[in-house]
Structures are given as C-alpha cells and as structure tokens.
Amino acid sequence: MLRGFNTAGAGMIANQRHQDSLSNNMSNALTPGFKQDRSTFRAFPEMLIQNVENRNIPTENGLNLPRNQIVGSINSGTYLQEDVPLFEQGDVRETSMPTDVALQNGNLPDETGFLFFEVANEDGDVRYTRNGNFTVDAEGFLTTNEGYYVLNEDGEPIQTGSEAFEVTENGEVISAFDQTLLGIGYHPNANDFVKEGENLFNNDGEDAVVDAREAAGADFQVRQNHLEWSNVDTQATMADMTRAHRMFEMNQQVVRTFDQSMELAANEIGRLR
C-alpha cells in the first residue's frame, strides 16, 4: 500500500511541474522570439517482484529448500525529466518599428539546425537569442530591451548613433555612424542550446556556433520593421493545462483512497476487543 502512495505522489509532483512549465509558456505567449518548452516524462526503473518461500521436500531428513517464483514487474511511478525548448519558427509580423529585426528561416542544411542573433550578456559572454525587439541606448549602441549589446560578426557591439539606420536582408546594418554586419550564428543542432533566462540561450554542446553566412546551405532573410513572435500555441497549451490538472486530481484521489484504506486498517482491523 505504501508503494501506491509513492506512485500516486510521484504522479502529482510530475503533473505539478508540468503545469508550471505550461504556465510559463502561456505567460510568454506574447514575448517576441520566445520558444516554448516541452516536458519529457520518464518512468522510474521497474522492479521485479518475486515470491520467496521455503519448500519442504518429503524426505527422511525433512529437507527444506528455498524457492523463488517470479511474479512479474511493477512500475514505481513517473517523473518529469526535463523541459526541452521547441525550436520552430514563430510568426513574423510587421511592427513598423525600425529597431525591430526578425530572422526569417529559409532552407537550412541540418534538420535540427537553427539561427540566432548574437548578443553579449552582463559578463560580456556571447549568448544567443531570437528576440529582435532591439532598442538604441543613450550611447547610441544597439541593445536588447534588457540592455544586452547586440554584436556584429566580429563579436563587437554595434553602434548606430540613433534609430535612423537600415538593415538589409543580409543583415548589414547601415547608419551614419557605422556600417557593419549583424552577428547571426548558425548551429547544426539547436537541441544543444539551454535557456538562461531573459530569452537568452547558451550553447551547451560540443559543436561551435558558426557565422550563418559561412554555413554551407544556410538560407535566411533579415527583415527590419518586423518581429518574430512566440511559437506558443495558446489553444493547445490551454488544453494541456486542463489535462495536467485533471491528471493531478486523479492522482490526488488515489492518495486519498489509500489514506482512507490505511486509516481503516489502523483503527478498525487492528483494534483489539
């Protein structure tokens, strides 16, 4: 019976964490460039149940031999293993804002390949994002809304001086202050990227990020005055949230049933009269 408690409790915890992940997706449904997370579940290792008993052999000395009979396997519950970002192109919409820039994927040489803008985090390390909702700071540098410098192909901050600049389809930034290329990275396996918060990704794999313009077969288009929106499907997410809530309630009812059974066993069956 205690095993049933553990199994149902594990199901409640897994569905609660799944609900948290879905809630985070829903809250970022309007965040430009956001990539929704998919929860992956795994079962705990199965246990092999055996019936262990002694078997008496009708001999003169009364031989007693141990006997193990395999009953079968039982699963001890499930858990949420990890949340994996879903790297799919979000809708690209016109905003009429010159500081908004979107990456439009074309044909990519790898099935799991993806493109990213290159930015510098607060420590100056290169990070990657699909959020092209840029702005120009007081010093004339192109930054994200969180204040991270947008980098060029040489890994240096881009200075435009003002919002009066032009971005070509190849990612060339043309302003009265400077003329340079946006840092656009390509990676053959986007699943190697992990989220670090504030719509930034870090490459956690062994393959290095390369300049998208030098990656053979990488086709893309940079669109100024446009933004790539979140790839969250709000209707599907709401349906998944409802399903996770119901699964939580089902496991909760199982726990309640086991609790009532144990109460009966402790207070009624085990009572001495």
TrEMBL record:
InterPro entries: Flag_bb_rod_N, Flagellar_FlgE/F/G, Flg_bb/hook_C_dom, FlgE/F/G-like, LlgE_F_G-like_D1. Residues 223-266 form the Flagellar basal-body/hook protein C-terminal domain. The keyword Chaperone does not apply. Transmembrane segments: none annotated. This is Flagellar hook-basal body complex protein FlhO. It comes from Alkalibacillus haloalkaliphilus. It is found in: Bacterial flagellum basal body. Residues 5-35 form the Flagellar basal body rod protein N-terminal domain. NCBIfam families: FlgEFG_subfam (TIGR03506). GO terms for biological process: bacterial-type flagellum-dependent swarming motility. Residues 116-173 form the Flagellar hook protein FlgE/F/G-like D1 domain. Belongs to the flagella basal body rod proteins family. One of its GO terms (cellular component) is bacterial-type flagellum basal body. Keywords: Bacterial flagellum, Cell projection, Cilium, Flagellum.
